[in-house]
Design brief:
- The protein is of the alpha+beta class and 88 residues long.
- The protein has one domain: NAD(P)-binding Rossmann-like Domain (Rossmann fold, 3-Layer(aba) Sandwich).
- 36% of the residues lie in helices and 11% in strands.
- Strands 1-2 form a two-stranded parallel sheet.
- The longest helix has 10 residues.
- One of its GO terms (molecular function) is oxidoreductase activity.
- Keywords: NADP, Oxidoreductase.
- It holds the Pfam family adh_short_C2.
Length: 88
């Protein structure tokens, strides 16, 4: 709702507001979770992509949101989670 509210408030000034919602990503901060075989197996089984995300998986979405291709996109949250939220 934050992106939608800010979109409504700032849109008339030409400001786009969008959010990026990453799923489970293999980063230095959660190396212990990645190393935990049981948890990693749960992630792989729960995510249609069958793997942890990597930081490079965010690049395409970020480039889209920063480019003129998204000039008419505002108030949205883009999930980059390998499909995990689609199988709740």
């Amino acid at each position: 709702m934050l992106t939608k509210g800010m979109c409504a408030d700032l849109g008339p000034a030409g400001v786009q507001v969008n959010g990026l919602a990453p799923g489970y990503f293999d980063t230095e901060l959660n190396a212990a979770l990645v190393a935990d075989e049981d948890f990693s197996a749960w992630i792989r089984g729960r995510t249609p992509a069958g793997r942890w995300g990597t930081v490079t998986d965010l690049v395409g979405t970020l480039l889209f949101l920063c480019s003129p291709a998204s000039d008419f996109v505002s108030g949205q949250v883009v999930f980059v989670d390998g499909g995990m939220t689609s199988v709740l």
